């Protein structure tokens, strides 16, 4: 092989490697963007759930003990620092299950003025939180898998982006809220 042909071949191979690395970096960037969007959606759903729970707790349709438990858990979830948020949100999930453990409690709230709308709104919010968390954690899982590849580490394709962390919390909604088919109305 002649020297110019060898140099051309090396240049083409290096160009292909550069294109592949650029494509991989772009893919990783899109995954990080997807994580940010999923995190924002999860935060919005958590805030909605806490707001609806707090509103229900102060509406007067629950008994006083249930109102206090639900209000304190919802308030703590809304005010929690980022480091303690997962714990506070888990405690809100536990409080919701404790307050709405029995279907009779749900029916009692539905029977109160404005209770039907409140229960429906809370059930929707409680159903959406696990979905939002699942979407976020799926994006995190995909980004972690790509970041584990040698080429990403060797060429530092992740840049200065922090390693993505999954959100681990108890987000199981109360069965009494979610098992019941929505009423016509």
Number of helices: 7
Tell how many strands the DSSP assignment holds: 0
Strand content: under 5%
Biggest sheet architecture: none
Element order: H for helix, E for strand: HHHHHHH
Low-confidence stretches: 181-185
Characterization of the model:
The chain has 185 residues and is mainly α. 75% of the residues lie in helices and 0% in strands. It has helices at 3-58, 64-79, 85-99, 103-111, 115-147, 150-154, 175-178. α1 (3-58) packs antiparallel against α5, α2 runs antiparallel to α3 and α4 packs across α5. The protein contains seven helices and no strands.
Give the key terms.
mainly alpha; 7 helices; disordered C terminus
Brief digest:
By secondary structure, this protein is mostly helical. 75% of the residues lie in helices and 0% in strands.
């Amino acid at each position: 092989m002649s020297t110019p042909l060898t140099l051309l071949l090396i240049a083409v191979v290096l160009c292909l490697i550069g294109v592949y690395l650029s494509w991989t970096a772009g893919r990783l960037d899109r995954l990080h963007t997807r994580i940010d969007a999923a995190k924002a959606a999860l935060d919005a759903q958590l805030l909605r759930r806490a707001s609806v729970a707090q509103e229900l707790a102060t509406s007067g349709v629950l008994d006083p003990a249930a109102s206090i438990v639900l209000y304190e858990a919802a308030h703590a979830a809304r005010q929690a620092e980022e480091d303690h948020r997962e714990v506070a949100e888990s405690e809100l999930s536990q409080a919701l299950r404790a307050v709405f453990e029995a279907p009779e409690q749900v029916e009692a709230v539905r029977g109160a003025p404005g209770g039907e709308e409140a229960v429906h709104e809370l059930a929707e919010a409680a159903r959406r939180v696990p979905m939002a968390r699942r979407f976020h954690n799926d994006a995190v899982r995909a980004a972690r898998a790509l970041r584990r590849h040698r080429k990403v580490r060797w060429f530092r394709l992740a840049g200065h982006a922090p390693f993505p962390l999954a959100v681990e919390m108890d987000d199981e909604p109360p069965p009494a809220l979610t098992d019941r088919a929505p009423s016509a109305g």
